Amino acid sequence: MSDTILLTCGDPSGIGPEIAAKAWASGARFVWIGDPRHLPPGTSWRTVAEGEAPGEGPLAVLVQDFAAPASPGRPDPANAPGVVAAIDRAVRLVRAGKAAAICTGPINKKALKDGAGFAFPGHTEYLAHLAGVDRVVMMLACPGLRVVPATIHIPLSEVPAALTEELLEATIRITHAGLVRDFGLAAPRIAVAGLNPHAGEGGAMGWEEERMIRPLIRRLANEGMAISGPWPADTLFHAAARARHDVAVCAYHDQALIPIKTIDFAGGVNVTLGLPFVRTSPDHGTAYDIAGQGRADPSSLIAALRMARDMAAARRA
Q1: Is 253 annotated as a binding residue?
Q2: Which is it for the CA torsion 41, 44, 50, 54, positive or negative?
Q3: What values do phi and psi take at 51, rounded to 5?
Q4: 1-134+277-317: CATH topology
Q5: Which of 150, 255, 273, 314 could join 184 in a cystine, given CB atoms 3.0 to 4.6 angstroms apart?
Q6: Residues 241-278: pLDDT tens digits?
């Protein structure tokens, strides 16, 4: 199997092409799938074929034709089919063994919906669809912390009803399997955060912990899983607490993302667990406000490319 990492272009009107060029200049090696017209002016690039290694020299590009040039900061719905086609192509290649992993550039869901009828909430759900997988898990990772939100892009008022035992158990099991397979952890230590302040404080601040979360954790621990909780979220992320777990499974989006973005805003990586292939992404969006200005920080993309390579190696091993 190839050890090539594929990097999809994402929205060409965002910072994706700029950070790809900067990541290559930093020494990261990958094959970029996109339209060379969208790269920053003066970028040196060369064409490679499907399955070809990136090698050295100019940026390795697997050319994907787009309908139009890109205007920084102004997404063009005409380019939406090209963005989707680049993702489709990457998945086809990685599933055919012509690449080891996929790293995806940031997309704009509204532009994709307007220009390509994109009917998915985001990358994660679309990749699960392409892979034929019913359920995947979003994990955010940096050197000091890994977090998984059990519920993601829903209003906070809907979280208590959405956080079912079935969902939480599936999230924990997919997380456990992913850490074993893709991160080489034989017995990952999983900490589960409570939903309510003080993890419910014995029912004084909510009953979800006592009625559902704690019994589930007890059952999984009895199966041999190294799992603990429910822990109060406000004491789960200081340095000493982080040293006691390999991942924190959280109840909702901000409970997970605030600590990791506080600890390492520029270097966080978005990982999709539960896919039949490795997928990572920088933990930021298209940043239209700075696109085309040469100011974009490639740190998160570089970390995502490095993590994709390490995960692919762990999966092969």
Answers
A1: yes
A2: negative
A3: 90, -10
A4: Isopropylmalate Dehydrogenase (3.40.718)
A5: 314
A6: 999 999 999 999 999 999 999 999 888 999 999 999 99
